[in-house]
Amino acid sequence: MRAEIITVGTELVSGQTLDRHSYYLSQECYTLGVPVYFHTSVGDNDKQLMDVIRLAHSRSDLVFLCGGLGPTEDDLTKEVLAEFLAEELILDPKALDHLKQIFIHRLEEIPSNNYKQAYVFKNGTLFHNLHGTAPGLTVTKDQVTYILLPGPPRELKPMFEASVRPFLMRLLSQKSVIRLKDYGFFGIGESSLAEKLNDLIQNQSNPTIATYAKDVGVILRLTAYATDEEEAERLFAPLEEEVFRRVGSYCYSKQNESLEEVVFGLLSQQNKTVAFAESCTGGLATHLLTTVPGSSKVVKGGLVCYTNEIKTLMANVPEDTLNKYGSVSFETAKYLADNTRQQFTTDYALSITGIAGPSATEGKPIGLIWIGLAERGKVTRVYQLQLKGSRKRIQLLAANYALFILQQRIKKGELMQ
Amino acid sequence: MRAEIITVGTELVSGQTLDRHSYYLSQECYTLGVPVYFHTSVGDNDKQLMDVIRLAHSRSDLVFLCGGLGPTEDDLTKEVLAEFLAEELILDPKALDHLKQIFIHRLEEIPSNNYKQAYVFKNGTLFHNLHGTAPGLTVTKDQVTYILLPGPPRELKPMFEASVRPFLMRLLSQKSVIRLKDYGFFGIGESSLAEKLNDLIQNQSNPTIATYAKDVGVILRLTAYATDEEEAERLFAPLEEEVFRRVGSYCYSKQNESLEEVVFGLLSQQNKTVAFAESCTGGLATHLLTTVPGSSKVVKGGLVCYTNEIKTLMANVPEDTLNKYGSVSFETAKYLADNTRQQFTTDYALSITGIAGPSATEGKPIGLIWIGLAERGKVTRVYQLQLKGSRKRIQLLAANYALFILQQRIKKGELMQ
């Protein structure tokens, strides 16, 4: 099976909107074992869209069409496809009912334009839209299956997860169960991870293995095809074991969670609290943990001590220490972590001090970072990192390393090297 | 002139990499007055790439080809295009010299694979690559102009700015000067901004007007076509005046800067310092300002006081105040700003306290935010906002509103309403 993805909208080709759907659907297709060969974006123009569909029909077995299902005159996707396939559109009572419910909820009459959204392919199926007025649609002709999805991301993604993925699984094979596992890795680059698993990736069959670089960290996705859940688990087990034997120390999550979610979960389970003392990251580590709902249970707060004056004044780092070792040093990181834990009376405190760039200071190189971790009743440890990248990149990595170090500590009860 | 953009790489169609180049180049083409009708992504496959080029040749006058200029066997773009156009590639001495310089700098021999990067179209021109080994290329045949650009964003964008935009301006008209002005707006949505300028947008000719939504805020781009810089300025003046009359209060920058860059610039010019007290934003406002190089000159630091305990312990907010008015209140915001300014001995202090969600607390609605601004020798003011969106969105907007409020204060010497 060969797939391609078409995104429809003048806002895409004019540069108003970034197309993320092709990226998302390609990942999902990869997971389902369906190769994608082309992405196309085209404006809201019936002739151009017809040409794009004609070409797709000639070269693909599965065609996604995203966008252009709205109520306006510009929304042409369904109508152009129906014309090209010479397939009839009919008013669907269930789709109409869904529209009515939405507009009753809004205390409005259905605008006359919106009625067209209740029309579906007579020889097709519809996908329920939990978050909007336009149903998703599918129709097959000449052994080419079309899947039409609404443009707004908050509608497309839930529809894909709830309806389209199961539909495709049935389409691909009536009996197969497809199971995904997404593992979160940190502290190892995508290429290093792929290299360490190179033979497994080269010889993959079932489960398949793929890596995806995120802004921070890497996702390793295993996909198993099986007749039932139990068989899927049996297929995962040896591969997972081998992956963990090689690179397990970099894995912070067996689900697709962020580092901050994992750290929040661990602290929360154990009823522990944390505070931060940040210099070069300027509050980013603290902020990241507070993006998790409920984080006030575990984050008491933190200090951003961006200047030496404030390191002394607010975090009680001795002036002597700053003069002798500099603000970017083992000693300063240790004082910051210890004093902050005491001031905030928390179980843990993390400190971060370093050179984010763009210029070296204190005669120390850009990217040098010290991270301190204080724990109630334990010896405070300090870690040295040498990071690469732009100023923002170094800040982002340093904040995440601090969270990663805390996660390793809580998980192992002892320190990583 | 009709343009289209082709991005080449298996990592694109397999969902490993998000295509941002098509988005970027479409914006640039729009600015140059060249409409883009199609985006296509295709893998590293010579036959598929040839088909895509053949189609583009039949329907466009200007074709961008991004990626596939690297040294590996997978990198096929130049070779496939040369074959399709029946145009010769020749070794270019300047390009070879550039390669040599790069590898001398790396203390390496030129790998044999890389030599192919010094081959250019005999009947074409090359664009110098300041950040990598692959030069950009252009060649014209059958009145179709191809522009080949390297895939890495850190190479493509500087090359576009330095060489390709001027090349296109010459191509479009020997005499025209094109001038862009990007204005940064905050506190007004893209649709509201467009509505307030609707007649100007509808009747645009020269200069043109376009709006682009950013993660935070909106860019308004004016583009003037003129015979010289002076004429461009004359063309801008009346339109700029009218835009400012209507929506000037939302404009924080007449260049495409971020809010934090503008605030840093203003503080820096006046030798003023700032500190922060953040509750619901968890350090994000402080962090944003520290992303600007040199920010230690103006940011002394801040407190993240995420719990009531810490608001009292570290920021001296009276327990009575927290009990009587709650942590999300005018009074708490005022204490936080005042006390932080005093503790950190800064010229300004900003405080942020609010309900980021996902649930309401203290009987107050999600999105309610209080921002305090203390200034040495002035009355402290407190602003109330009601924001919408996810938890992360509310945090991001609240942090940016704090910076916006500070920017307005410094600029006007007095407060916005």
Tell me roughly what share of residues is in helical segments of chain A.
40-55%
What is the name of the CATH architecture of the largest domain in chain A? 3-Layer(aba) Sandwich
Write the CATH homologous superfamily of the largest domain in chain A: MoaB/Mog-like domain
Taking all Cα atoms into account, the compactness measure Rg of chain A is: 27 Å
Per the CATH scheme, the topology name of the largest domain in chain A is Molybdenum Cofactor Biosythetic Enzyme, Chain A
Shape of chain A: elongated
Describe this entry's structure for a reader:
Two copies of one chain form a homodimer. The mean pLDDT of chain A is 93. In chain A, helix 3 (46-59) crosses helix 4 (77-85). By secondary structure, chain A is an alpha/beta fold. Chain A has helices spanning 10-13, 21-31, 46-59, 77-85, 93-105, 153-172, 190-196, 198-202, 229-247, 259-269, 284-290, 308-313, 319-325, 330-344, 391-412, and strands at residues 3-8, 36-42, 62-66, 89-91, 119-121, 125-127, 136-141, 144-149, 177-185, 208-213, 218-226, 251-253, 274-278, 299-305, 348-354, 368-375, 381-386. The two termini of chain A are 47 Å apart. Chain A is elongated and about 80 Å long. Chain A has three domains: 3-172, Molybdenum Cofactor Biosythetic Enzyme, Chain A (3-Layer(aba) Sandwich); 177-253, Alpha-Beta Plaits, CATH 3.30.70.2860; 259-412, Maf protein (Alpha-Beta Complex), CATH 3.90.950.20. The first copy, chain A, has 15 helices and 17 strands. In chain A, the strands form four sheets. In chain A, strands 2-1-3-8-7-6 form a six-stranded mixed beta sheet, sandwiched between helices. A five-stranded mixed beta sheet of chain A has the order 14-13-15-16-17, with helices on both faces. In chain A, strands 10-11-9-12 form a four-stranded antiparallel beta sheet. Chains A and B meet through helix 2, strand 2, helix 3, helix 11 and strand 14 of A and helix 2, strand 2, helix 3, helix 11 and strand 14 of B.
